[in-house]
Amino acid sequence: MHRRLASLLLVTLAAAGCAQTSATSTPQTAAAVKAPATTAPPHAPGPIAPPQPSSPMALRPLIAPADATDYRVAPRDQLYVQVHGQDDLTRTVRVSETGTITLPLVGELKVAGLTPHDIETAVENTLRPAYLKNPRVTVTVSEFLGRQFAVVGAMNQPGAYPLRSNSVTLLQALSEAHGTRENADRVAYVLREKPRNGEPQPLQVKLDALFRTGQGADLLVEAGDSVYVPEANTFYVAGEVEKRGAYTLRRDTTVSKAIAEAGGVTKKAATKRVTIVRTGENGQREEITDLDLDSVMKGDPNTDLTLQAQDVVFVPPHSGKVVGYTILEIMKGLFSIGLPLL
To answer: What superfamily in CATH does domain 147-229 come from?
Structure first.
């Protein structure tokens, strides 16, 4: 699991590194740029609302406490072994890396892979009849460290979580991480530590179907598995618009729709100098400049371009400058609304 998590983190860091790479921008006029082919994500997400109190994702952790009788003890788990009426024999013990515990009178006992009930029986059989006539033993797992699963990506509390039974449902796993963030995609991927025969890797579950109809609710997450919820593809609108910020990219998002989603332009907007900042395949930034807002809002295909992931639509102020806004000025506009440098 650790290797799998490390890979996910490396992908995240690499993406962040690419996003912050400084590159030479290539200004272009709108007339010189053809409308690009639509490059939508495989799942075209719409707006993702924050979890409501009645929604499944708003629930607190759903996994049952440590009383699951079918749980198989693993190395690094902590056990509370109570010998009733015998305080000197009662112990809290840590399962060793080799899967054993050591108890007074019992000695070393192999417990990895056993259920708490199995361990109770083994301890009772060892104590009876040489030490106690009718011993009664209760074993409780007090810390679940040996079996874990991970929930990473666009989650409110991503991280590794203890597996308190042999498996949990996908919904329980997502709830343990306190639900998805607002910028989460509408799909979750389950990466198996031990893939099953005939099962695709990774498993893909549509979250809309999971929350609304329960489709995929019976999918089990097991020890070592990782659940990954990616961030939805986004675009940004900055400058002289009413609601500057990040927005979820849809398949048909164009410049006009982006500006409309941002509440339209302000009275200070330079409506004939709208700019799109785009990162090309080679990592270099491009400026598509001098978009005429009148043509854009009329849906002119030469100016009302289809947006791509991470595009920035910038509406400069009408300041009377002869020279158009540069990449640096656009980036300053993003900083002013608290957005990360793209």
So the answer is: Outer membrane lipoprotein wza domain like (3.10.560.10)
